[in-house]
Amino acid sequence: MEKLLGSSEPPLRSAPGSGACCVTALIEGKEIIISNLGDCRAVLCRNGVAEALTRDHRAEREDERKRIEDKGGYVELHKGGWRVHGVLTVSRSIGDAHLKDWVPAEPDTKTLSLTPDMEYLVLTSDGIWDQVGNQEAIDLIMQSCLREKSMQKTINNWMTSEDENGNENDGPPAKARRVSTVNQTKRSMKIYCPNQENMSGLKMKQHSNALMSACRELGNLAVSRGNSDDITVMIIDLNHFKS
């Protein structure tokens, strides 16, 4: 702290405070507007291939370091990573008032046209991306959705099948009923699905189960690899915006 407050270094504001990062998506008509600030990230699934739509605002970025230095600040290696004034790993944020001269709350924004090859949009905090790769996350989501579709198909087949006496079965076998019940309990998790009011009850149930399962699996994977930060995950199915 003496170095930060010394006369040869840019002065810090008096009251250090906490900060936050964010990533947002606005889908309007056939346009997707993405903004990011800090190290949250938006990743697009395009025909099963991950495409990062944002670039993390981190202190090790050459352009961010130059911007900070041009304003009289500095970036140094501290505790295994590059940090603004030896303190903050992100180079832009909301809050962090004591560093605001060098760590602005200015997002990057881009606009994309919604195209048929776009499948899912993933918005998460750095708690995921510090441990899970972009393509790895997309692969996990695709697998989760395929499993849900397969399970629902199995259940639907049992629901409509007839026994040898010509009577319809009461429902799927016990194992399938148990799995279905477990999936339904996941509805208590908050899933961000901007167009859910336009979906039928059964379709919404299948959609939510698959997305909730993917959110849970992504979080569990990051935690199993050592993440100790809070995790926020949003998965948007873009197929429902193409009609």
Automatic annotation (TrEMBL):
CDD domains: PP2Cc. Signal peptide: none annotated. SUPFAM superfamilies: PP2C-like. Residues 1-238 form the PPM-type phosphatase domain. It comes from the Eukaryota. This is PPM-type phosphatase domain-containing protein.
